[in-house]
């Protein structure tokens, strides 16, 4: 009882002391700063809001705009709102290929020979990019042109996983750390690591084989992120030219192609991934890192300058260090702003030179030829590609005694050769890729398997089901450019049958094609090098590879002939059937 009284008395005395003490000073609020990272990807040489194939301002069904001039206006707006000293601008690759503007300064007036500043370097320098990452299409025009463009860029061009073939050392700058000043505080350091696509090893084999290797994105990030953190980066952003679905186009042959989310999941120390390659719009996605449990922010800004990703990072000063305590992202539509007149004026001479080139008349067409039905019908306009490819190979191989076939895909459904004058832009609109022509030797059995693989492009059509051409093609997400048609032989594709059992009546000059019968097949370099994963062609004997650009061959053939007349080349040699009956 006595002990209890003493305890109560002691507690009362302590309470009195607490009540008598002066109030403690409120804790000083932690310093918080917001840093904004803006991002583009897959610009594909769209400088202005212009469609060179249509010779008109860009327009699509969704009302999108394109081009760096539009991007510039949005960037200027964000810098004005957030403070230019607290913003950075990055790009995730595929910059110097994709429109006639890029083609003109790679092939017609190449920057390597004539010395002009590449229009993409000119625009990006004026806009003020802080770092740019290599995409797979940066390698399309060869390493010398790429090197010249990099020299012309004020921003560092990054590619940590593009390494010298012999030494394994980085062939390009792996990362850069940007410093932001904060008034009265320690500067904020933002590190950016650039990763490119391993598919370059296949798609541009002719340009990189024996010179460059492309290492796994995850392993490369595991190597470099600790280095960036070790050099004092408070924020680490990965700019990756890779989609986020974890899919690989080439099985075990190459590292995973679309590894952006895998990098976020498996590599600790990353705050965000600005990614591209897939041409999708992903405003904001969070991925949980499996090592730390922290949330990693991902964003993809669509393509061609249609969107600008805006990533915001809240940094708080903790124990003398900046710590990321919040992050978010969104995408902004460039159709909400006008073109930046500064960029328009800057690119005007090169833009006009390109317009002059694409409007050059090369031939006349006897009638209008459209590619609209090419994905599901044998059309004369695709037969023109096949014809030119066959004739080019035949002329190059005068001693060849084997039948020459040709493979082509419907790259564009909107391509048209108008009746009358045919211009460069009409041909370029039909063949939109910078592929070169090759020829390989295949057997009848291999051709059958090749066609079966290609025919997976069609959805299976049940007996009696109405034919809806909008639902007939692109099965399993197969793009039009991965549906190959073959000329020189005749065949049916029975869409009532399951994949792998669709090719019927495969004949050459009226006779069934024998399994051991040999053919020379004209094919583009993308397909021959493994693009699309078609069977047999990568290991087939190459009998022709003169590095002739197919688009240029189409233009030169038209110029020589003077007239494009379907009567000279169009042959209906394949059709779709259902249970043996023609679908159309």
Can you tell me about this structure?
The chain has 584 residues and is an alpha/beta fold. The termini are far apart. The N terminus is likely disordered.
Q: TL;DR?
A:
The chain is α/β, with parallel strands linked by helices.
Give a quick set of tags describing it.
six-stranded mixed β-sheet; disordered N terminus; 31 strands; 17 helices; alpha/beta; 584 residues
Average pLDDT, rounded to a whole number, is 93
- The largest beta-sheet arranges its strands as 6-5-4-1-15-16
* Radius of gyration of CA atoms, rounded to a whole number: 29 Å
First-to-last CA distance? 105 Å
Low-confidence stretches: 1-21
Overall 3D form: globular
Structural class: alpha/beta
Which sheet architecture does the biggest sheet show? Answer: 6 strands, mixed
Number of helices: 17
Number of strands: 31
**Approximate strand percentage:** 25-35%
Portion of residues within helices = 25-40%
How do the helices and strands line up, and which of them pair or pack?
Layout: H1 2-20, E1 32-40, E2 50-51, E3 56-57, H2 68-82, E4 87-91, H3 100-108, H4 111-114, H5 119-127, E5 131-133, H6 143-152, E6 157-158, E7 162-164, E8 175-182, E9 185-195, H7 200-203, H8 205-208, E10 212-214, H9 217-230, E11 235-240, H10 260-266, E12 272-275, E13 281-288, E14 295-301, E15 307-318, E16 321-333, H11 341-358, E17 361-365, E18 369-370, H12 380-396, E19 404-408, E20 416-417, E21 420-423, H13 424-430, E22 437-443, H14 444-454, H15 469-472, E23 485-487, E24 490-494, E25 503-508, E26 511-512, E27 518-524, H16 525-528, E28 541-544, H17 550-561, E29 563-564, E30 574-578, E31 581-582
Parallel strand pairs: 1-4, 4-5, 5-6, 9-11, 11-12, 12-14, 17-29, 19-27, 24-30
Antiparallel strand pairs: 1-15, 2-3, 7-10, 8-9, 13-14, 15-16, 17-21, 18-20, 19-23, 22-27, 22-28, 24-25, 25-26, 30-31
Helix pairs in contact: 2-5, 5-11, 9-10, 12-17
């Amino acid at each position: 009882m006595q002990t209890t009284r003493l305890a109560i008395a002691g507690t009362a005395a302590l309470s009195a002391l607490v009540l008598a003490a002066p109030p403690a000073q409120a804790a000083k609020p932690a310093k918080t700063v917001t840093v904004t990272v803006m991002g583009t990807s897959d610009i594909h040489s769209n400088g202005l809001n212009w469609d060179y194939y249509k010779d008109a301002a860009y327009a699509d069904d969704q009302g999108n705009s394109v081009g760096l001039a539009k991007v510039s206006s949005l960037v200027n707006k964000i810098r004005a709102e957030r403070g230019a000293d607290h913003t950075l601008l990055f790009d995730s690759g595929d910059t110097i290929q994709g429109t006639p503007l890029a083609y003109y300064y790679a092939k017609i007036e190449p920057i390597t020979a004539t010395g002009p500043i590449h229009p993409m370097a000119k625009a990006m320098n004026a806009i003020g990019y802080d770092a740019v990452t290599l995409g797979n299409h940066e390698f399309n025009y060869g390493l010398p042109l790429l090197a010249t463009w990099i020299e012309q860029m004020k921003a560092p061009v990054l590619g940590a996983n593009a390494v010298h073939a012999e030494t394994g050392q980085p062939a390009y700058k792996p990362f850069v750390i940007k410093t932001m000043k904060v008034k009265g505080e320690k500067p904020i350091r933002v590190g950016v690591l650039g990763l490119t696509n391993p598919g370059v090893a296949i798609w541009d084999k002719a340009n990189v084989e024996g010179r460059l290797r492309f290492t796994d994105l995850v392993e490369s990030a595991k190597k470099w992120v600790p280095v960036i953190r070790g050099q004092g980066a408070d924020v680490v952003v990965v700019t990756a030219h890779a989609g986020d679905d974890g899919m690989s186009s080439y099985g075990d042959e190459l590292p995973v192609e679309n590894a952006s989310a895998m990098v976020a999941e498996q590599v600790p120390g990353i705050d965000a991934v600005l990614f591209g390659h897939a041409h999708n719009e992903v405003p904001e996605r969070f991925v949980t890192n499996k090592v730390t449990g922290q949330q990693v922010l991902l964003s993809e800004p669509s393509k061609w300058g249609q969107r600008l990703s805006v990533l915001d990072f809240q940094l708080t000063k903790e124990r003398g260090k900046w710590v990321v305590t919040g992050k978010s992202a969104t995408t902004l539509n460039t159709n909400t702003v006008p073109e930046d007149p500064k960029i328009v004026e800057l690119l005007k001479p090169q833009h006009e030179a390109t317009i002059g080139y694409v409007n050059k008349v090369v031939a006349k067409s006897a009638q209008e030829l459209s590619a609209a039905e090419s994905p599901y019908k044998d059309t004369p306009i695709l037969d023109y590609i096949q014809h030119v490819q066959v004739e080019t190979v035949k002329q190059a191989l005068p001693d060849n005694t084997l039948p020459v076939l040709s493979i082509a895909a419907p790259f564009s459904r909107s391509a048209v050769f108008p009746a009358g004058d045919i211009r460069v832009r009409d041909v370029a609109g039909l063949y939109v890729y910078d592929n070169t022509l090759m020829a390989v030797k295949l057997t009848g059995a291999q051709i059958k398997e090749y066609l079966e693989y290609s025919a997976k492009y069609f959805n299976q059509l049940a007996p009696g089901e109405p034919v809806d051409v909008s639902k007939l093609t692109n099965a399993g997400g197969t793009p039009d450019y991965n549906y190959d048609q073959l000329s020189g032989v005749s065949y049916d594709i029975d869409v009532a049958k399951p994949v792998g059992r669709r090719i019927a009546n495969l004949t050459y000059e009226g006779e069934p094609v024998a399994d051991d019968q040999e053919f020379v097949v004209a094919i583009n370099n993308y397909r021959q090098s493994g693009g699309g994963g078609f069977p047999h062609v990568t290991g087939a004997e190459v009998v022709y590879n003169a590095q002739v650009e197919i688009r240029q061959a189409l233009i030169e053939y038209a110029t020589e002939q003077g007239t494009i007349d379907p009567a000279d080349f169009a042959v209906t040699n394949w059709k779709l059937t259902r249970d043996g009956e023609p679908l159309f």
